[in-house]
Design brief:
single chain; 911 residues; alpha/beta; 48% helix
Length: 911
């Protein structure tokens, strides 16, 4: 008889429908639920559906039989709430083993009965594991955000108890369903792996998520992409969506999952949305029409029903899935996936990932004091400021002799979870104590990084830590230490990193993309000759790892480099800028640095740069002495004075140069005065945006592409641009009122999956100033919303923006949906990762109207004007089509649609 994994590649499998909805049809009483055994237990028992496995097994088997008659291939055990946590509400937690055992027996008997009747259509039993009635990521007390109603270990214990019985009872799969909190799901996955290991019974592990809002997030706040990162460590068979909404409303999220998840896909939606009485009005035939889209578009492998569905709904499916082609899972990502509430995909084109260093009691006296004094609100503000300044990961370290590090790590991470603006980024759990690391891992629903493990205690300890980290679902930093000590030379660094890599990959089956080496950034210019080559050794090691250890990333604690110059912040920051410039060229992926660092590589005066590079690159025997002399002379005048002199110098330039400089450096202090001075020099306020401000942003893009500027600094410039635009906005609005008629109606949106909008906002301002009526839908806008609003508003054109690589696919999807809806308004495409090449090869062929790639905001109004006038439009479209045909003839491999160089060049393009 074929198994589920064998059949899943041949045809779409049918799952059963709702158990609760079917039970309601039997009009059972309190006495039915209690039976003879539970008459004396306090409270109401009606509604405890799982208990019916003991008190009314005839009803449960009858429901199973009806679903199998309707055509189901897989039926679920009636065990959704059969854990000690959920059953405690009914005071029957001591009967959990018995309930689960009885539930499997009931389902197994009926499934085997139907398999015997038609051996060519085997029937299967999935053990249903619900989320419990508690959440590990959200406090039950609004006044105490660090409190939790259940711990990770309590969940693991409860899930393990249930799953062990389900496996021993003979289920064909474990289905962890209605996931609303990823931390609960991670505990369930941990328990499932433990139960399978200890029982020796391995079955497919199926996950099903429920999204709680139209943005496609779980109740605990994660996006679906972030959820995928959080669970990618597990041996998952299928992943899908259930409950949430009706089939139509669920479809966009199912499309997103099918496009990103390297697993088989399941879906079992509700029977439409409930009415005001909480009932489901959608008929089986109506739901079948909507589900048919899942099937014809190749989105699913398993289809069933949730709330409101009965055997009548499932009976519609056999005809729909007959001869249908199942979904083919996408390949596993060849990149490092991390997540908080949102996904962070670490790819080469990111240039450098900044890890915020200030939430570290060992490195920040202020943070230590706040933790010691239990001033958690202020401590959280440090984390928030780092994210605002551009940190993509937050490093948290509580190792201090006077702190209970385990308790403080737990408290602080729980508090972070209650702050969405902080929790959206991944966390690096930084500790030398294993119990602190595990405590941190048990708090985070996202995919975090453990910092760190090493070979200093030997291979056995190293492998045990690595296996545990993998089971928790985290990436790991491996320090270049072994039994002999810290690696300081190039040869020692590559020896240890190479050995650790082979152990992790070959013996633990660790995903190479989840391995991050820290080859030790050590202090230079210490006066000790052996230290002079430390920076060079690190940089060379970075290049070696990239060539010889596929998939592995490299990180480092950058501030260690300049330890000899503590007290001289200017020299220290300049040394970091130089070191990062050279290390990133070799492939350095990330580093723990201050996100608010002010010194850019291009800021450093030539004489200072030479002396610092002499030290970092070990180019002269007297390099350290020369830099120390320089540092002393700077200290005499003070770095602050030098900075002030330099700042005063740029203030003497003309206003255009001052505005441009302010943008590049992210200085917002003088914007009010400089813009007031500039306004009389320009015909319109928008000309200031298109002139000096855009020139500044273009310079930022150039420096970023050359590796001379890093993401935190770029974020700072974007905030400065936003401030400048807000200052100009009232003037722009007053000028706009002087206009007479609208030049056209334009819909703007940052596509789903992307939260960046600075470029789109500038486009909005520029076009509004040129007389266009703007409908700005904001960020993270689903395709169906764009289509719907475009139709409702009868827009003349649509502008799509996106900054990250997944936006490219989403733009194609939007074009397909617009075409499907019968729209033919022009599409304007822009954003950091977009290109004329991708637009011509991927977006334009998917649509039936002009699709125009725009390099920056200044082009939008010009192109829009051409598209709004019949005479100019005809010629413009003809030339555009000819250009795209030439590009399409040349073609390009899929993997080269956006090259690394192009992606870097595009990073700062606006819209």
């Amino acid at each position: 008889m074929k198994t589920i994994p064998q059949l899943i590649t041949e045809r779409i499998l049918i799952l059963d429908g709702a158990m609760g909805t079917m039970i309601q049809q039997y009009n059972l009483t309190e006495e039915d639920f209690r039976g003879n055994r539970f008459t004396d237990i306090p409270g109401q028992m009606k509604g405890n559906n799982d208990l019916l496995c003991l008190t009314r097994p005839d009803v449960i088997q009858d429901i199973h039989r009806k679903y199998l008659e309707a055509g189901a291939d897989i039926i679920e055990t009636n065990t959704f709430s059969s854990t000690i946590i959920s059953m405690a509400d009914y005071h029957v937690e001591e009967y959990v083993d018995e309930i689960n055992r009885a539930a499997v027996k009931l389902a197994r008997e009926v499934a085997d009965e139907y398999t015997a009747k038609t051996p060519d259509k085997p029937r299967f039993v999935a053990g249903s594991v619900g989320p419990t009635n508690k959440t590990a990521s959200i406090s039950p007390d609004v006044n105490n955000p660090a409190l939790r109603g259940v711990t990770y270990n309590e969940l693991v214990e409860a899930y393990y108890q249930q799953m062990r019985v389900l496996l021993q009872g003979g289920v064909d799969a474990i289905l962890i369903e209605t996931i609303f909190d990823t931390l609960n799901a991670k505990a369930a996955i941990f328990a499932a792996e433990q139960a399978m290991e200890e029982t020796g019974i391995k079955v497919p592990l199926m996950l099903s998520v429920t999204v709680s809002d139209v943005g496609g997030r779980t109740l605990s706040g994660q996006t679906l992409d972030a959820f995928l990162a959080s669970v990618q460590h597990a041996n998952i068979f299928s992943i899908g969506l259930n409950c949430s909404f009706g089939a139509r409303q669920l479809k966009p999220f199912l499309e997103q999952l099918a496009a990103r998840a390297p697993y088989y896909i399941s879906a079992y939606p509700n029977a439409g949305l409930p009415n005001s009485l909480g009932l489901y009005d959608q008929t089986p035939q109506e739901m079948a029409l909507q589900v048919k889209e899942y099937i014809t578009e190749g989105l699913i492998n398993i289809i069933g029903g949730c709330c409101g569905t009965t055997d009548a709904y499932i009976a519609e499916y056999p005809a729909l899935v007959k001869d249908a082609v199942p979904h083919i899972p996408v390949g596993k990502p060849d990149s490092l996936w991390l997540s908080g509430l949102e996904l962070l995909e670490v790819k080469p084109e990111m240039n450098f990932v900044n890890i915020g260093e200030r939430c570290n009691v060992a490195g920040s006296r202020k943070f230590l004091r706040l933790i010691q004094e239990k001033k958690y609100e202020e401590a959280l503000s440090i984390a928030r400021k780092q994210v605002e300044d551009g940190a993509l990961i937050i490093d948290v370290n509580m190792d201090d002799g006077l702190l209970d590090a385990k308790e403080e790590m737990t408290t602080f991470l729980n508090l972070i979870a209650s702050e969405p603006d902080i929790a959206r980024v991944p966390v690096m759990i930084d500790s030398s104590k294993w119990e602190v690391i595990t405590a941190g891992l048990e708090c985070l629903q996202g995919k975090s990084i453990v910092n760190s493990i090493s070979l200093k205690e030997g291979e056995e300890k190293f492998l045990s830590y690595a296996r545990a980290i993998k089971q928790y679902g985290a990436a790991v930093v491996v320090m270049a230490f072994d039994e002999k000590g810290q690696a300081d030379t190039f040869d020692r660094k590559i020896e240890i990193c190479g050995r650790a890599y082979r152990l992790l990959v070959d013996k633990v089956a660790f995903n190479p993309n989840d391995i991050i080496f820290d080859p030790n950034v050590l202090a230079v210019a210490t006066g000790i000759e052996e230290h002079n080559n430390y920076a060079v050794d690190f940089i060379q090691t970075v290049g070696w790892i990239k060539k010889n250890l596929p998939g592995a990333r490299i990180s480092g604690g950058i501030s260690n480099l300049s330890f000899s110059f503590r007290g001289n912040n200017y020299i220290r920051e300049a040394m970091h800028a130089v070191f990062l410039y050279h290390a990133i060229q070799q492939g350095l992926d990330m580093g723990i640095v201050n996100p608010a660092t002010a010194v850019l590589y291009t800021d450093i005066p030539e004489d200072v740069l030479v002396k610092i590079e002499d030290v970092v690159l070990n180019r002269r025997s007297d390099a350290a002495e020369r830099l120390i002399e320089l540092a002393e002379s700077l200290k005499t005048t003070t770095a602050d004075t030098n900075q002030a002199v330099k700042q005063d110098a740029w203030r003497t330039e003309n206003v255009e140069e001052r505005l441009k400089y302010a943008l590049v450096k992210g200085i917002g202090d003088y914007l009010e005065n400089d813009i007031a001075e500039a306004l009389p020099l320009y015909n319109k306020a928008v000309d200031i945006i298109e002139g000096p401000l855009m020139a500044g942003m273009n310079k930022v893009g150039e420096l970023f592409g050359e590796g001379k500027m890093f993401l935190p600094q770029v974020v700072k410039t974007a905030r400065t641009m936003k401030k400048a635009v807000s200052i100009l906005q009232p003037v722009i609005e007053s000028e706009k009122q002087e206009g007479t008629i609208s030049a056209g109606k334009v819909l703007l949106a940052t596509v789903k999956g992307d939260v960046h909008d600075i470029g789109k906002n500038i486009v909005s301002v520029v076009m509004a100033c040129n007389g266009y009526e703007i409908i700005d839908l904001g960020v993270m806008v689903p395709a169906e919303t764009i289509v719907q609003r475009a139709i409702e508003e009868k827009v003349d054109m649509i502008g799509l923006s996106g900054l990250i690589t997944p936006s490219l696919e989403e733009m194609v999807h939007v074009a397909v949906e617009l075409k499907r809806a019968g729209l033919s308004v022009p599409l304007l495409i822009g954003g950091a990762t977009t290109s004329k090449l991708h637009t011509a090869l991927k977006i334009a062929p998917a649509y039936n109207a002009p699709v125009v790639y725009l390099k920056d905001a200044s082009q939008n109004a010009v192109v829009a004007s051409k598209l709004m006038h019949a005479d100019s439009k005809e010629q413009f479209v003809r030339e555009l089509e000819e250009e795209y045909k030439n590009i399409q003839k040349k073609g390009t491999p899929q993997s080269d649609l956006v090259s690394l160089e192009e992606a870097q060049e595009n990073k700062l393009k606006l819209f």
